[in-house]
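Possible regression after last week's pipeline update?

I re-ran a chain I had predicted before the update to compare outputs. Posting the input and the new output here so someone can diff against the archived version. Not blocking, just want to make sure nothing changed silently.
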Amino acid sequence: MDAPFQDYYKLLQVHVLAEPDMIKSAYLKLSKKYHPDGSKGNANEEKMKALNQAYAILSDQKMRDEYTIRWLREAENGNTYEQAAFTDEKPIPMEPVRSIMLQYLTALSEKEYITAYDCLSLADKKNIPLTEFTRWQMLVGEVFELLSFSCEVHSIQKNVTIQNRLYATCVSVHCTVSEENYLMERTEEDDFYKYLLFENNSWKIYLGYTSLKGIIDKFSSLAQLIRQKEDRAFLTRFVFMEKKEFLEMSQREQMRFNRYGSIFSMIICEISADAMDVFENILRHQLRKLDIACRWSLTTQLILLPQTSADEAVLVARKISKISGTFPEIKTQISYRILQQQFPTLDDLINRLQKVRPIDF
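New output (post-update):
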């Protein structure tokens, strides 16, 4: 039988969205008040044990996440002290809340990290630079592929203070996702809760991280394990090839074009040699499994995009350009030459591609 539910947030007199330093401060203040050395009595000893248990749970992020899921469920039954009812106020439309949550998840699934970052709260953006957010999500994308997702509004809270700022409304959203775990080589179902805040006349997602360093280090290690697997070519987003292999694969696309009219396009990316490794890592996360690329020279990448028109290739290049602009290691602008195959031979395409006017996004 499960132990009776205890509201640790109420016990420490902090909000469910309280920052870690606020939880620590509240614990130190209360432990000083109820510590047996400073105040006698069994009641204070029991109170101190409860405070220690509450702080042990809420100061550990993983245990806190698991506890908060139960806390939210208890909130539905009125068993927590901060559940707010809006029975005497005009109903709040919840569709915009679901919409921004779905927009965030869609952006992550499509590797549109800048769009996803725009969905975050001001409090998050203060602590998490776009560059760190992008690196984090790129690494997550190497370990997990988001296949499908749904979300529903769970609960509403009123007058929430986060990082010394008062929010009139906070909404908890329950998300359910299906994802491919590349490390374990299996499809998994997961669910979690996200908080959304109403600021500047729009809803924003609150992640609550003060730093991503530990998370980035964790996913960097997991991604490295995946890269070491023998079937890396299948698990990564696309394949880097040497020139000879690249031309052999490109010739196959040329044969499909000549026989069946199957379209394909190529992109030449020009970038400084010292930023090439970083740029290749970006490509690894942004391109598809069926795409291939090779380092054509010290300062150029040649990319083959099967089943892709010129207009679609421009969208791919623009997406790569946006992500590249968030990396300080890439100090010079990248130019892109794009051309859809419409010639009888592959040599014609590559020769003409190098003469196309470059695009700078």
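Follow-up from reviewer: compared with the archived run. The chain has 14 helices and nine strands. Marking as no regression found.
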